[in-house]
Amino acid sequence: MKQFLGVKCGLKWKVTLWILWGLTLKVAAQSEPMISSQEQPLLERLTDGKRKVDWADMNIQFCSAVDASFQNGQLDEAAFKVHRIRLEVLGGFHEKFTYHFRQSLNQYTTPNIPLDNLSGSVELAMVGWQLNDRWKLTAGKQAVQFSGYECWVNAIKVRHYSDFNNTIPCYQAGLNVAYKMNDSHEFNFQVTNNRNGDSNDQFMYGLPEGVEATKIPLLATVNWDGYFVDHAMQLRYSLSYGQLAKNKNVFYFTCGNVWDKKPFLGYIDFMYSREGIDSKGLISGVTVQDGVGKTLSNVDYFTTIFNLDYRVASHWNLYVKGVYEQGNVFKSSGDVTAGTYRRVWNAQLCAEYYPLKNSELLCYLHLLYKNVHLTERATRWGAESYNQQRISLGLVYTLPVF
């Protein structure tokens, strides 16, 4: 044992010496200009030194609030929260190419996730290539082409998400081909991963017993965007299909119907998923017994969202929002019977004040009431219905860096 410890200590000293030597070389190298710095960057070589960057933008998106949260009418917590901080860099070069990078500083993940080899805090890391007036190719980590206004609008504008949108895998590595038929119709054909990490991490309680992980964890999506009435009416519909595990698939139908003409902004979203395994975990989470849970099979979720914004004046905006959600098991399995397990609805009221014209700076007062009703099928497992309330006074700002 002592001999082993001696060898181990000797190795540590050797490793330490190698590290110090490497750092010394690095400092010495930094004191002299690098030969490669004299070479032209790739972008300048592509454009014969005539073009560097067509346009570039960098911003920091910030949302902070003081929240008073209640559970079943009793104060749960009152504290300051930083809901979102996101760094975004985007731009274009060589006329036909664009790039978009965005990282959330609120999300904690391992540095490299096994499947896409990228931290989950990185939401977007993609490059777009405008092939011609009609076709565009996008590669890298990107937004999955799910539809629904709440899903595709900038998250900095959403005070409280539906459970459906809060649990879908909305940013994934993949490839998208966009076809613009004309100014009113556009189609997207996309293939992405359907998860970021290991298959067992995708499900609340891991893969069910006897279910094997898939070797093709992909999701294919077809999307149509339509614009009518001088682009005031916007329709966005999507179908998605992929494999969650071997012989266990998932199907999504999502759509958003928007009317955007000042002073009104209104939308109705419909979202549906049919899953061979419960990837969202919302139903599996209510069937826990004696502290032991399992990932359920054969579930579906349905959500509808209604929102109406009214710009009262140049400095004031009001909106009311309502969400209804339902979670079901569509096929009995063992002691889990088919039927509805949870019904959720929430109502939101928000007043927004814009101190500056033509600015992203705003202050808001947001009220939330959310009721989670569990049916008899769920309560027999010991789960209980509950309701939540929240009062938030917050600040939102998109800080333009350049």
UniProtKB/TrEMBL annotation:
Protein name, entry field: OprO/OprP family phosphate-selective porin
Top-rank taxon, per record: Bacteria
Pfam families reported for this sequence: Porin_O_P
